[in-house]
Design brief:
Helices cover 37% and strands 19% of the residues. It contains twelve helices and 16 strands. The strands form five sheets. Strands 3-2-1-4-5-9-13 form a seven-stranded parallel beta sheet, sandwiched between helices. The longest helix has 25 residues. The protein binds nicotinamide-adenine-dinucleotide (NAD) and sulfoquinovose-uridine-C1,5'-diphosphate.
């Protein structure tokens, strides 16, 4: 039986991943410092779905499945020794690392959030890898990165999975072949931390021969998975506020509660998407297919498809009759971009991804319908501005 420690296992992606693995016979432990729940309090926002405490969730799961998930309350960025001890005691074959501050808008709000995001994300990643080296164990690290490391300028080519093969002109005019990390172009402090994570992984994979997989994931949509559906007390979180709510879930929620769909700028931004059920499947595939010690970092693009924001808005408006509001874009991003991205590695491992379609929208909208009395209209507007030159997202319907 494989043992997996899930860092950030109380979060939107981490919780359903922990349950998915536990239901399939993996021995699972969770490390989380509950910082995401504290940020809810700080922002006066919260999950639309009423999530139970980590203890209640784990008890309910044990009663339903007969499986025990161990929980460690540890800040992986600040408490190196507890992290190291937990890894030693739990003795996992794999650590899945979700434990980072993941909102781009939150990371841009002010200097305090910029510094927190940097210290939390980089500190946590470095602590994890240092702890494994200290323990002299060969533990596979699977990290959740982002497709945002590639940037969103139209590349004019299909974005490969992490590496770019290049020919460099040498001084004798001959060409030298190299495979390099695809040049990063982070669009926020959050995306900057994910770009820096890549270099940290490259170093430890080379110097300490750690087997590492980095999953460059697109925007996750949906809420429930096969396991979280089994009991109300297992429900996954659903963020809809201007900082943590991601675009597709926000539009679906806005359509249900009668709010106009808040398209930033012209809505010409093209992004990569994946459903939460596929997130958990992909993580399992990555765990089951580790690189060998000494291999370079294995990079997968964890995406199902790419879509333009205004096309998503139009699709949902046509389906529901919702209005579309084009608001000033609070972010510093190209007004229009094309995006082609390979996902050949996961497809070759058997992934047949869920694509955007009404049936699944229906499920997400049902969740919103059930919990819409918890919706706070004050939380919808994006409040974080990328630069001082930006003005708040005024509605220009
Ligand atoms: P989330 O905020 O819901 O979950 C992250 C969890 O990590 C939270 O439970 C939080 O309390 C915990 N955490 C954060 N810092 C910690 C620390 N120092 N010590 C211990 N625990 C800590 O975020 P999510 O949406 O589940 O994202 C998980 C990972 O996946 C992130 O790294 C994110 O960058 C990546 N990702 C998410 C998406 C998405 O659309 N949600 C897309 C691409 C990549
Ligand atoms: N957008 C709107 N209206 C909204 C919200 C967003 O038009 O109400 C636009 C944004 O301007 C942006 C796009 O939609 O162009 C995506 O924004 P988002 O908030 O859905 O996603 P993003 O900030 O990129 O971040 C999310 C996750 C992050 C993950 C990333 C994957 O929060 O953790 O890394 O998606 S990626 O986008 O591929 O970088």
């Amino acid at each position: 039986m494989r043992s997996v420690l899930v860092l950030g296992g109380d979060g939107f992606c981490g919780w359903p991943t922990a349950l998915h693995l536990s239901a399939r016979g993996y021995r699972v432990g969770i490390i989380d410092n509950l910082s995401r729940r504290h940020i809810d309090d700080e922002m006066g926002a919260g999950s639309l779905s009423p999530i139970t405490s980590i203890r209640e969730r784990l008890d309910i799961w044990r009663d339903i499945s007969g499986q025990q998930i161990d929980y460690f309350f540890i800040d992986v960025a600040r408490d190196f020794h507890s992290l190291r001890d937990a890894i030693e005691i739990f003795a996992p074959d794999t650590v899945v690392h979700f434990a980072e501050q993941r909102s781009a808008p939150y990371s841009m709000t002010n200097s305090s959030h910029k510094r927190y995001t940097m210290e939390n994300n980089i500190g946590g990643t470095n602590n994890l890898l240092t702890a494994i080296v200290d323990l002299a164990k060969s533990i596979h690290v699977v990290h959740l990165g982002t497709t945002g490391v590639y940037g969103y300028a139209s590349a004019g080519v299909e974005i490969p999975e992490g590496y770019l093969d290049v020919l460099i002109k040498a001084h004798d005019n001959d060409f030298v072949k190299r495979s390099i990390l695809f040049p990063t172009s982070p669009g926020s402090v959050y995306h900057l931390t994910k770009s820096m994570d890549q270099l940290i992984f490259q170093y430890y994979a080379h110097n300490d021969r750690l087997p590492i997989t980095d999953l460059h994931q697109g925007i996750v949509w949906g809420t429930q998975t096969e396991e979280t559906r089994q009991h109300d007390g297992l429900v996954n979180r659903f963020d809809y506020d201007g900082d943590y709510g991601t675009v597709l879930n926000r539009f679906l929620m806005q359509a249900v509660v009668g709010h106009a769909l808040t398209v930033h700028g012209t809505g010409g931004q093209t992004r990569a998407f994946i459903n939460i059920q596929d997130t958990v499947r992909c993580v399992q595939l990555a765990i089951d297919n580790p690189p060998q010690p000494g291999d370079r970092v294995k990079i997968f693009n964890q995406v199902a498809e790419t879509k333009r924001v205004r096309d998503l808005a139009e699709m949902i408006a046509a389906m529901t009759g919702a209005r579309i509001a084009y608001v000033d874009n609070p972010r510093n991003e190209d007004a229009e971009n094309d995006l082609l991205m390979s996902n050949a590695a996961f497809r070759s491992l058997g992934l047949d991804p869920i694509l955007l379609r009404e049936q699944l929208f229906g499920e997400t909208m049902e969740i919103v319908e059930r919990f819409k009395s918890r919706y706070n209209p004050k939380m919808v507007a994006a409040r974080s501005l990328w630069t001082r030159n930006h003005r708040p997202g005024l509605v220009k319907e």
